[in-house]
Amino acid sequence: MTATAPELQGNPRKRRAILDAAATVFLREGFTRASVDAIAADANVSKQTVYNHFGDKNGLFMAVTDAVQDEAVLRIMDLMDTGFPDPATLTGPGDLRAALLRLTGEWTRAVYTGRLVDLRKLVDSEAEHHPELRERWFANGPGRTYPRLNRLLTELARAGLLDVPDAVLAEPDLLAHQLTAVTGTDVRQIRPEMDFEAEFDRRVARGVDFFLRAYEPR
Amino acid sequence: MTATAPELQGNPRKRRAILDAAATVFLREGFTRASVDAIAADANVSKQTVYNHFGDKNGLFMAVTDAVQDEAVLRIMDLMDTGFPDPATLTGPGDLRAALLRLTGEWTRAVYTGRLVDLRKLVDSEAEHHPELRERWFANGPGRTYPRLNRLLTELARAGLLDVPDAVLAEPDLLAHQLTAVTGTDVRQIRPEMDFEAEFDRRVARGVDFFLRAYEPR
DNA sequence: AAGAGATTAGACTCGATAGTCTAATTCTGG
DNA sequence: CCAGAATTAGACTATCGAGTCTAATCTCTT
User: Which long-range contacts does A116-119 make (Cβ < 8 Å, 24+ apart)?
Assistant: First the structure.
């Protein structure tokens, strides 16, 4: 009687293969241009199986965004939970800079390499036609990571390692947005013909230095 | 013998109407979903006329991006040519902040209100399929405005009104990117349910203050 | 007023694609 | 080994859109 939820039936290996193929094709072609036939072929699966697992093209797309986001979010949350030293152990300002460089570098890498960036563009351009998409993206991604980063930065301010105006601390997630904005936009400017790795490190450092220049205790 | 270039023939009033309609429909539907039929209908023009003027759907889309960009770029260039006071007349630091607020506010308004923002998203998502698009967008927009803004900010640094490390000054357009990044990303977070005007001013001010906090002479 | 160029409505071709259906086959757990 | 679930290939429907073509009309300019 109780119909099994379509997300929970079928062979999980095939399900995985479909998600992978769908990510590839959606990212290469865009949502509209991507055909379910092409995805099924790429996954070595029949079209009907795709529909069995995900209902329709929209359901498939949302499942893809969830999967790709989850991977990055796990990485980022772990980074902040275990990859950042206790403020008490940061003695000199050089320590702080090094720790921020590492954190920001890994964060930025998780966001701007791999499939996440491009998928975000896709979601952005499709959001007008699938209103729930933008909300879902936010709740599943930035809605989880930014408050965590902001908490971490706020603790640094409370510990006296950063000198941040109360007006900034009072705005939800502002500090986190400022740090990621200043590195993210710079990293996004990297052109294909450049040496990505070298540019990446330089630009993350630039962003962190800009941030520190503004909020370093004098 | 010499065929007239398709961009230069036909009734300019109709041409304008088509460009307007195309902007509306492309922005509402996205490139792929937008149909030439819908655009022609919206412009009160026959489909054939659209093809007479712009050749094909791609040509139409590029003409639209050019037109929308040109409008904003003119505004922004004018702003910097005539809307910013001579550094010599800026005596107190309050003067500098006020001038930067005005400039950055108008710049940001030109970029993040109206059709430019959304068109940019569209270009971004279509760029994979029309490689010349990204380059054209850059050359026609940021390629013109950023060097100009950077020159202006560099003059402020030379005049002693900003204290910017040489390493930053040495990077092409970096200073300009930092200023616009820090305001732009914050403004982009404004949610539809918020009071746009109030949020806009606050966020531009935040960005300028962040920038000044980093580069204000001590 | 005449003629050239521009515009029009609408039919038409050609190719894609979302989603359904079916009958046959393959997996898999008990 | 067997029964029910999952999968498969492929045909099929229905829709939609880019671009072309045509014959008739319109609008200037001279």
Answer: A116/A68, A116/A69, A116/A72, A118/A27, A119/A23, A119/A26, A119/A27, A119/A64, A119/A65, A119/A68, A119/A69
CA of A130, C1' of C22: distance in angstroms = 33
- The answer to whether the beta carbon of residue B185 comes closer than 7 angstroms to any atom of strand C is no
* Through-space separation of residue A129 CA and nucleotide C25 C1' in angstroms: 39
- Contacts A186 to B, Cβ<8 Å: 174, 177-178, 181
pLDDT (tens digit, 0 to 9) for every residue of chain B, 218 residues total? 333 455 557 788 999 999 999 999 999 999 999 999 999 999 999 999 999 999 999 999 999 999 999 999 999 999 999 999 999 999 888 999 999 999 999 999 999 999 999 999 999 999 988 888 999 999 999 999 999 999 999 999 999 999 999 999 999 999 999 999 999 999 999 988 999 999 999 999 999 999 999 999 98
- Which nucleotide is nearest, taking the CA of residue B50 and each C1'? C7
For chain B, what is the largest distance between any 2 Cα atoms, rounded to a whole number of angstroms?
69
- Residue contact A174–B213, C-beta within 8 A: no
Q: What DSSP string describes B68-82?
A: HHHHHHHHHHHHHHH
Nucleotide showing the shortest C1' distance to residue A39 CA = C17
Continuous H helices in B83-115: 93-112
